[in-house]
UniProtKB/TrEMBL annotation, chain A:
The keyword Iron applies. It holds the Pfam family Fer2_2. This is Carbon-monoxide dehydrogenase small subunit. One of its GO terms (molecular function) is oxidoreductase activity. PANTHER family: OXIDOREDUCTASE WITH IRON-SULFUR SUBUNIT (PTHR44379:SF5). Keywords: 2Fe-2S, Iron, Iron-sulfur, Metal-binding, Oxidoreductase. PROSITE patterns: 2FE2S_FER_2 (PS51085). Residues 11-94 form the 2Fe-2S ferredoxin-type domain.
From TrEMBL, chain B:
Coiled coil: none annotated. It holds the Pfam family MoCoBD_2. It comes from Desulfosporosinus lacus DSM 15449. InterPro entries: Ald_Oxase/Xan_DH_a/b, Ald_Oxase/Xan_DH_a/b_sf, Ald_Oxase/xanthine_DH-like, AldOxase/xan_DH_MoCoBD1, AldOxase/xan_DH_MoCoBD2, AldOxase/xan_DH_Mopterin-bd_sf. The lineage of its organism: Bacteria, Bacillati, Bacillota, Clostridia, Eubacteriales. PANTHER family: ALDEHYDE OXIDASE 1-RELATED, XANTHINE DEHYDROGENASE. Keywords: Molybdenum, Oxidoreductase. This is Xanthine dehydrogenase molybdenum-binding subunit. The keyword Hydrolase does not apply. Gene3D superfamilies: Aldehyde oxidase/xanthine dehydrogenase, a/b hammerhead, Aldehyde oxidase/xanthine dehydrogenase, molybdopterin binding domain.
Length: 172, 761
């Protein structure tokens, strides 16, 4: 982050998302980040990272799940100004940026058709990523608990659990 | 069974990579330069006249570009019949639209709503369907005396089914060994609650050309409907991927009109996306359904007559209630062989958020109240419900009045095998102990089993059209107005075309659901995707292939019928040593285009049975769902994982969970919905999944080339009445409405004095 030259006269914020660092001026203007903006809003409306979905916007449905410092967080319940100095990953940041290959979790979701409408899928995948980062071989029950905050209305739960368990086996 | 290259095999959804990488663009992920945001001021009163509105302060707020009230809104009308204005001088439910704002940002729009000053004259309100029909009840619309909506739905034909009146009730009474009577209701108005809230973007070109991007489940029919409702405007409808709909976002004028009106007023693109509270409290919910019914039966389980009043509560307006009544009346007959009927529906409006189309489409609402009345008779005759449904479900050669009012005869298949296979997989014989008897008891935990049934003849409803274009490089493009709403239907029509043309699935694509380039498409509703949409696409592919062979035959000096094609190469059947690519017939600069059209066919009923096992804790009143088995026969599976996903959809508000805990709680003192958020509105989580199995048979149907039919609409519908039966058997006491929350269980067990809510006991 050292290369970004902060003006001492302006209030700014730097955000690190998927390995890129972004500098925003704080304010109410159309390219600025307001102190009232949620991380979900900033990701979508300022950075164009629309893979993070806003559904309930009140921390109940998990659609907006992203990773912050390796943990799953609800980006609709965090103010952007709270996220300075944190390392944030979104669904767009999964996989290998050099080769372009996708994360094994994503591949497993494809292989198991672990979605229907797909709206809640990015949030579910990010919750899964956080779980497997912490615990690479969870039981099916532990996966169910970890995903209990992710709303899926099409009832793709069973295929999602199959997809996650297939990755955990591979991961050992 | 024929072994196909793609059909029946699990293949990757065409949109899978975009979905798992977050690249899929849902409606709220789109934006346009210079776009404004729409916000809606909503009524705090369930019924009131607007005496005055002052918008001056809101208009002065920097960033506000338009404020519209009933005084300056275009005269576009929705509803069935047309009775719903975009904004009116009268509000009819808490959440009814009062004014619209277009602003540079959502925050400014919300701020502007607070600056609009409205003076209301509150009116008395009514919420109960039977109270609304009383002479002294508040009247919602001058043109609908008694709050009863006129019958009929023109798009189903001149004589749509609006009741079931067949035979002679007196004769049915004379023939009956006994008569049972009861009242059951399914009035908890669960919310379909798609994770993507309703949304649209409207852009005008000139005065009369409107382009709408929307999350509609039926973008092409939306174009047709909007043009009718708006008068002469030329509408182009762009379908987006749909982030869940479950029927609710099929007809989308409710949220498209505000965006279109504001876009017209400001001459700028306008986006509207409902907030979650708006979606839960001001968008369409399921119909309320209550039946007072009487059934005559013989001891062998034959039904001699069925008579009843079906009260359909549509809330503040009818979006499609008469259509749902028509289909429901047809579906009742599929389930029940009976010579004498007198089932009289009444569609009634009340002062709560309106009801609209939801997966199950009328038949589910009807069954949830009607099947339990039939079970009163099954109990009296001591008949196993599985045997009852097996005996009474429509068989090939038997007839029914369908939604168009015409008599149709089933040319489909007998579902007895599916029923028996479902019972075997579930272990019904071992678990069924008789009526109001638990399967097992362990301390305070009592288990019970129940079964429900549903089916429709809508697999062949309405018109679909498609074109298939063959390109010289061996690729095929399907022109279809089909939106992807989660079932994988856009991928499945690619599989059908790939199978016919024998080209890799990757070589087949579908156009964007753009009404300006695609032919007519009614949309993926009523389980019609496989048969109706599929048939149009199959015909188009066959015709395109024939054109190709007509062009290629002279090159081989044979007739077109002697040719075959695989992987973009054409050859004479049996002689694949000499091959020519498509380009040899089409040329570098040519294509061929086949056209397919599907005409409605109501002769193929589908079928779904759901077996459930529940465990009731008699101390706490909590009901746990232990096991679910659904049984069906689909003719031919197109894509196994997509079908299993659809069948797993029997949970949720569309089905079983509307019997267990999903409900919209209405405060009948203030008319407000008390749980318009996802904490207080209960939904099933990953942590609470029952054991789930499916018995899926594949008996070829006389449908299309692959002998398949769809079951998406009906997959959840038998669930709620199955759960109601299972709980009654577990605790030995009947409960007469849904959902089966702990208070109702404890009240039924005599452990609580009164019901907290519901008002009907």
């Amino acid at each position: 982050m050292g290369e970004i030259n902060r003006s001492p006269y302006e209030s700014t914020i730097t955000l690190t998302v998927n390995g890129d660092t972004h500098l925003f001026r704080l304010g109410e203007g159309c390219h600025e980040v307001s102190p009232s903006h949620t991380l979900a809003f900033t990701l979508r409306e300022r950075l164009g990272l629309t893979g993070t979905k806003i559904s309930c916007d009140r921390g109940a449905c998990g659609c907006c799940t992203v990773m912050m410092d390796g943990k799953a967080v609800l980006s609709c319940m965090l103010l952007t100004v709270e996220c300075e100095e944190k390392v944030i990953s979104t669904i767009e940041g999964l996989g290998d940026p050099i080769t372009g290959s996708i994360d094994p979790i994503q591949q497993s979701f494809i292989d198991h058709t672990a979605f229907q409408c797909g709206f809640c899928t990015p949030g579910i995948i990010m919750s899964t990523k956080a779980l497997l980062t912490e615990n690479p071989s969870p039981t099916r029950g532990e996966v169910q608990e970890a995903l209990a905050g992710n709303f899926c209305r099409c009832n793709s739960h069973y295929h999602v659990l199959d997809a996650v368990m297939a990755v955990t086996r591979k991961g050992g | 069974m024929k072994d196909y290259r793609f059909i029946g095999k699990a293949t990757t959804r065409k949109d899978a990579l975009d979905i798992v990488t977050g690249k899929t663009k849902f409606i709220n992920d789109l934006s346009f330069p210079n776009m404004l945001y729409a916000k809606v001021l909503r009524s705090p009163f369930p019924h009131a006249l607007i005496k005055s509105i002052d918008t001056a302060k809101a208009m002065k707020l920097p960033g506000v570009k338009a404020v519209l009230t009933y005084k300056d809104i275009p005269d576009w009308m929705g509803g069935l019949p047309r009775h719903v204005r975009v904004l009116d001088s009268k509000v009819r439910y808490v959440g009814d639209a009062v004014a619209l704002v277009a602003a540079e940002t959502e925050e400014i729009g919300e701020e502007a709503l607070r600056l609009i000053i409205v003076e209301y004259e509150p009116l008395p309100a009514v919420y109960d369907v039977e109270e609304a029909m009383q002479p002294e009840a508040p009247q919602l619309y001058e043109q609908f005396p008694g709050n009863v909506l006129p019958r009929g739905i023109r798009v189903f034909g001149p004589n749509p089914l609006q009741e079931v009146v067949i035979g002679d009730i007196d004769q049915g009474i004379a023939e009956a060994d006994f008569i049972v009577e009861g009242t059951y209701s399914y009035e908890n108005i669960p919310n379909p609650l798609p994770p993507e809230s309703p949304g649209a973007i409207a852009v005008w070109e000139g005065e009369d050309t409107l382009t709408v991007w929307s999350a509609s489940q039926g973008p092409h029919i939306l174009k047709v409907a909007l043009q009718k409702m708006m008068g002469s405007s030329n509408v182009r409808s762009m379908g987006s991927p749909v982030g869940g709909s479950y029927g609710s976002k099929y007809m989308s004028w409710q949220y498209v009109f505000p965006a279109a009106a504001l876009a017209k007023a400001t001459r700028r693109p306008v986006k509207i996306c409902y907030g979650r509270a708006e979606q839960l409290a001001a968008f369409t919910v399921r119909l309320g359904s209550r039946i007072h019914g009487k059934v005559g039966m013989k001891m062998d389980g034959s039904v001699t007559f069925l008579e009843g009043d079906w009260f359909v509560n549509t809330g503040a307006f009818s979006e499609m209630a008469q259509g749902m009544v028509a289909v429901g009346c047809g579906e009742a007959q599929l389930m029940l062989k009976c010579a004498n009927w007198n089932l009289k529906p009444k569609v009634v409006c009340t002062n709560r958020t309106a009801s609209g189309q939801v997966r199950g489409f009328g038949g589910q609402e009807l069954k949830c109240a009607l099947v339990p009345i039939l079970t009163l008779g099954m109990e009296k005759a001591n008949i196993d419900p599985v045997d009852f449904f097996k005996k009474n479900y429509v068989k090939p050669g038997e007839g029914y009045y369908w939604r168009d009012g015409e008599w149709w005869v089933s040319k489909g298949i007998d579902f007895t095998n599916a029923i028996e296979e479902g019972a075997r997989v579930f272990g019904w014989q071992e678990k069924w102990q008789g009526w109001l008897k638990p399967s097992s008891v362990e301390g305070t935990k009592r288990r019970g089993v129940g079964v429900g049934v549903h089916g429709n003849a809508d697999v062949g409803e309405d018109v679909s059209e498609a074109f298939v274009r063959l390109d010289p490089d061996g690729k095929a493009i399907i022109y279809s107005g089909l939106a992807e709403h989660g079932t994988g239907q856009r991928s499945n029509i690619c599989k059908m075309v790939a199978e016919i043309l024998q080209i890799p699935l990757e070589w087949v694509s579908v156009t964007a659901a753009d009404s300006s380039i695609n032919p007519f498409e009614f949309g993926p509703v009523g389980s019609r995707g496989t048969y109706a949409i599929g048939s149009a696409v199959i015909e188009a592919a066959e015709k395109a292939k024939k054109q190709l062979f007509d062009l290629m035959a002279p090159k081989f000096k044979v007739t077109p019928e002697e040719l075959e094609t695989v992987n973009g190469m054409v050859y004479v059947k049996g002689k694949d040593e000499e091959k020519l690519p498509w380009i040899a017939g089409l040329g570098y600069h040519g294509t061929c285009l086949g056209r397919g059209r599907f005409q409605p066919d109501f002769t193929l009923p589908n079928f779904m049975m759901i077996f459930t096992e529940v465990e009731v804790d008699t101390e706490t009143g909590k009901v746990d769902l232990i096991k679910v088995v659904s049984a069906t026969d689909v003719g031919q599976i197109i894509d196994p994982p997509s079908l299993i996903n659809q069948l797993n959809g029997c949970l949720g508000s569309a089905g079983i969970d509307s019997a267990l805990f999903e409900e919209t709680v209405l405060d009948t003192r203030l008319g407000r919905i008390m749980n318009p958020n996802m904490i207080d509105y209960k939904w099933r989580t990953f942590a609470e999944l029952p054991e789930m199995e499916h018995a899926i048979l594949e008996t070829p149907f006389p449908s299309h080339r692959f002998h398949a039919i769809g079951v998406g609409e009906i997959a959840p519908s038998p669930g709620p009445s199955a759960v109601l039966m299972a709980v009654a058997n577990a605790i030995g006491v009947r409960i007469y409405d849904y959902p089966l929350t702990p208070d109702k269980i404890l009240s039924a067990l005599g452990k609580m004095d009164t019901l907290k809510k519901g008002g009907r006991g």
